[in-house]
Design a protein that fits this description.
heterodimer, A: mainly beta, six-stranded mixed β-sheet, 0% helix, B: 114 residues, mainly beta, seven-stranded mixed β-sheet, four-stranded antiparallel β-sheet
Chain lengths: 113, 114
């Protein structure tokens, strides 16, 4: 079973739409959670961390449900520039000082005019 | 803009060649990473270095040989690769390894093995 599962999409939405991505993780020892964004043929970049109480950064809202081991990202008022692949990322504590990141396959979003 | 640079950006090599990928970070970080990104697959962690010491080898074949001479530089030496090794190789760095510190990625080297 994969550590992090995401719907690969693609999601194709018009400008101004609201779109939500979901992600599940399998390891209950997961400690911290992130969404990264990767533009076509570019490197991944941190979009936002995900906190237990949920957090918002402008048009982006991230939610975490530890009981269900589920993470979500909501994008409101989509812009053309939001077109990218969104990677769900989980940091898993393996009982040592060396946790590591596990990446989902990514969800591809295309926003059209 | 990025504080992590990688060279070359593109590399084509035959299965008998030997080549090296280079990564340099200008962020004052102490941890560096090599990742492999293949089409339609998630990023796979290959190696982790913390203060120049290798702290993780994620069951990577010996035809990939990392080297970390100091906290700012990381190399990946390649020899006798296979076509299935064709992928985007990404270097990343963070202040510390094994923590929630943000990892910053370089632009990657797109490798094609013929």
């Amino acid at each position: 079973r994969k550590e992090v599962e995401q719907d690969p999409g693609p999601f194709n939405v018009p400008e101004g739409a609201t779109v939500a991505f979901n992600c599940t993780y399998s390891n209950s020892a997961s400690q911290s959670f992130f969404w990264y964004r990767q533009d076509c043929r570019k490197e991944p970049k941190l979009l936002m961390s995900v906190y237990s109480s949920g957090n918002e950064d402008g048009r982006f809202t991230a939610q975490l449900n530890r009981a269900s081991q589920y993470i979500s990202l909501l994008i409101r008022d989509s812009k053309l520039s939001d077109s990218a692949t969104y990677l769900c990322v989980v940091n898993i504590d393996r009982g040592s000082t060396l946790g590591r990141l596990y990446f989902g396959r990514g969800t591809q979003l295309t926003v059209w005019p | 803009e990025t504080g992590v640079t990688q060279t070359p950006r593109h590399l084509v090599m035959g299965m008998t060649n030997k080549k090296s990928l280079k990564c340099e970070q200008h962020l004052g970080h102490n941890a560096m990473y090599w990742y492999k990104q293949s089409a339609k697959k998630p990023l796979e962690l290959m190696f982790v270095y913390n203060f120049k010491e290798q702290t993780e080898n994620n069951s990577v074949p010996s035809r990939f040989s990392p080297e970390c001479p100091n906290s700012s530089h990381l190399f990946l030496h390649l020899h006798t690769l296979q076509p299935e090794d064709s992928a985007l190789y990404l270097c990343a760095s963070s202040l510390r390894s094994g923590t929630t510190d943000t990892q910053y990625f370089g632009p990657g080297t797109r490798l094609t093995v013929l």
